[in-house]
Amino acid sequence: MSLDVSLQTDPGVLSDDPMQEARRQVEICNACRYCEGFCAVFPAITREKVFADGDLTQLANLCHNCRGCYYACQYTAPHEFDLNLPRALASARAESWERLAWPGGLAKTFQAKGGALVAALVAGFAIMFAAIAALPGEGEGFYAWLSHSAMVAIFAPAFLLPLAALAVSLRRYWREVGGTWLTLADWREAVGSAGRLKNLSGGQGQGCNFEKAERFSDARRHVHQAVMYGFMLCFASTSVATLLHYVAGMEAPYGLFSLPKLLGVPGGLLLVVGCAGMIALKGKADPDLGTPGRASGERAFIWLLGFVGLSGLVLYAVRGTGLTGPLLALHLGSVLTFFLLTPYSKMAHGFYRFTALLREAQEKRLRAKG
């Protein structure tokens, strides 16, 4: 197949600027259209003729890096066009997270030095919690080591302030991509797509090419689902425990067959399994199709999230022994680190991608109406 339309940029000239390079490759894809049925990115590409920066930001965050387009492409190296759309969109996606993050600069720092930053914060916060735990407690279970009032004073701001920072970042994203008022139908379509992780199968239901190159696999979708639903179960466990404490007057500790534990224990297991699976799959995947220069931040996020789940499970298993105090300090240190880094780690990508799915659902609805 040959390209028979004029491109806005020289198709053979690679750019060091992530957005410009994404524009070059997207324009070639728009002219070729061989991958039109692959995933949500390609129908979105074909709706445009000229791509503004906001269009590229939307396409980059709509991409789930399944890599099917790369292995189907006839214009990859050694062709002079040297297309690598998964890498180009991953670069533009990371650039958008770092540029739109608030306060600025923190996301870029984490992506470049994530491993060292996570290790330092977890260790520092663990020492802080160990010092607090040395003071007399005021309750049973973990509250004998760290009072409920101290936990609320530390974790309430650590949860709410990152959410506020994310809200500012997503508002910036929404304005950049041209988002308007949403309908219930937009939300329903985006939630359905996110819940099934539809685009991790290339949108065609045959699997992802992430770790097996030309062969298809659903492994990446499964480990992402384990992490996503594990996190949601853990969050639901914490939310239920909060309601039991403040509304029903039922204070912790809770038994194994209580609702917080029935939600939290499976959630922790799913987190550990999902994160271990992600690490294994990343070891098999071609690094040249991912985000350049962000490996430290990506690995640090997965290890941190997996450690939060694992330390929570171990802490529950050793409750009441001499290991409770040190493990509680380490677990709370990792949880606090996770919360504070959420707007700047790869955890933010879930929020951006869901917002991109909302924008895509909205765009399809508006174009259908004419």
From TrEMBL:
Keywords: Membrane, Transmembrane, Transmembrane helix
Kinase in keyword set: no
Membrane spanning residue stretches: 116-136, 142-168, 226-248, 263-281, 301-318, 324-344
Protein's recorded name: Tricarballylate utilization 4Fe-4S protein TcuB
Domain of life: Bacteria
Keyword Membrane: yes
